[in-house]
Amino acid sequence: MIAELNDLFWNELLTRIVEIQKVIPVVGPGAITFGPADNLLHPWLAQQVAAKCNRQFPATDLPKTLQQVVDEQRRTGASYEEKRERLGLVHRYVFNLLTGSGLHPGVTLYRLTSIKDFQLFLTTSFDPLLARAVELTQPAPRPADWVRAISFRDGFRDLPSSFGELPFECVYHLLGKIRKAPDCALWDDETLAFLRELDQDLRSPGNLSPAPHDSHLLFLGLSLDNWLMRFLIQVVKGKHLSELDRDQLYLSENQETGERDQVVVFFSRLTHQLRIIPMPPREFIAELARRWRDRNPQNPDDTALMKQAHRLAHRAPGCIFVSYASPDLSIAEYIVKQLQDKGLLVWFDKQQLLPGQDWEAEFSEAVEQTCGIFLSLISDTSAQRLTAYNILERNLASKRRDRFADSEVFYIPLRIDEGEPLIPANEPRATKKIHAVRKTGGHLDDDFIEYLRRLQVTQSNFFKNPMHRSGLALAGAQTTLEAWKRGEVPPIDNDGIVTAEDMAALDLKGTWLVTLSACDTGSGEVKAGEGVLGLRRGFLQAGAQHLLMTLWPINDETTVQIMTDFYDAARKTANPSQALADVQRDWLVKIRKEHGLTQAVRLAGPFVMSSQGKP
């Protein structure tokens, strides 16, 4: 039946939530949001993964679910093994996006989790955003494993205690949660497998099983076509969903496919009725949170929650740091508003710094580690200053810029008045050769904002992944590098750049030897528990058995001779590791006799071999 959204309905629902405390939210894709714009996560994920997999969709019909991307991956696979590898790429890309993109919950999740009478959140989504929202809105001591999930790898993990006696708010992933090794449902086949596992787990005695049996269920952002909803209702009611009156499902069955996730359904444990709420999940959650706060006026309001969500989102890697002199505050605020209104991430001290914090430590970390673009606002007022926080910020930014290649754009001097020169004497010395721009009064035109947006895209969404920061330059690479300098993002399907992540997607099973005898091919980023992330990881993940790399720049003439000897020895011995050791030893001895130890190490020492067993 369709619920009538009058005061009687809201009062009844809130009574069950607040006083009886027997309502469990079941959160689906249509209610998982992220970022300052409160966008839905799953359509964004689908489109990002489609681009990484080079799946082409019409601009008017972009994918909204990972299932659509998976269907395309399967359709183009020639063999079972190829299809399996392509599906593995989907999981890898989803994992990287969720763990390396600095995503923060949207306001919808903050609103939902701020309702402190919810003790347990069930979710059919695999992402960590719901749990992050709970941590921020309901801080409490929790064990490391407080977020639990149905798992094929770890076995059944029950709730820590019975529903109603939970020591803290819990999040339970009914279809698994994202982790590096696949253990969650990203598409339909996996969903069915997890549903079978969930069915078995809920038949076992424990704390989780009685929770949905004995409670009212509030489905947020799931479809009535969704197998999970049908299954849970069957568990609670004790009979198939098809045995319910047909008119109880009328609204959902008449919706278009694109609207099916925009459903809120309340299932009562007392009447066993489905009450379909004709309101999009985000609007429903906003209204529910507002009415709940009316009963709990001591709790934070929407403004506080939005500020918290906004603050977290805009300190993500790749953000724009706006440096200004205090007399220019009003223009700085105007610039920040223009950028944030266009969806750019901007670190601004008036939004980020909180009472009691070490302000200098906070902005130093933002400048030295987090931001991807440093915007230095220049005026006659700032030009007269010799000591101030903005001078310290600019000196830190200048030192960081020294670590970048000359082609990379990081430090942008922006003159906000008609004064001269564009770059005054008190700007760091190294910035004098940087091209400055003038935007009088802080008025930013669309072209300049788009330029910053593209810079942020390349720096925050791509290069923060260490597997994107190692690669090989092929034909066409120079055109791509020049486009990056202009702040443009050329299509990745023919950009002349093969990244370590691209390498990992290749099928090199059975490849006996890969030689990377260019400069620094063994370089990469060291991650705790991961090792070095770079070309080595990419080729070995692809299946290469032996990989020869270099640890520092090589000499072309000497390297040709060393490689010739190495190939001869490798063919004779069928053992690349031993062949390299023998050839390298001979060349070290030879060069040391002729030119000394330092030259011997420099010319013959950079070569290393990495090997793995046959797949």
What does this structure look like?
This protein has 615 residues and is an alpha/beta fold. The chain folds into three domains: 7-40 and 104-295; 314-460, Toll/interleukin-1 receptor homology (TIR) domain (Rossmann fold, 3-Layer(aba) Sandwich); 467-480 and 489-611, no CATH class. The chain is 43% helix and 13% strand. It has 24 helices and 21 strands. The strands form six sheets. The chain has a seven-stranded mixed beta sheet. A five-stranded parallel beta sheet has the order 11-10-12-13-14, sandwiched between helices. A three-stranded mixed beta sheet has the order 17-20-21, sandwiched between helices. Strand 2 (33-34) and strand 3 form a beta hairpin. Helix 2 crosses helix 4 (80-100), helix 15 packs parallel to helix 17 (389-401) and helix 23 (576-595) packs antiparallel against helix 24 (597-604). It is globular and about 90 Å long. Mean pLDDT is 80; it is low at 244-261 and 527-531.
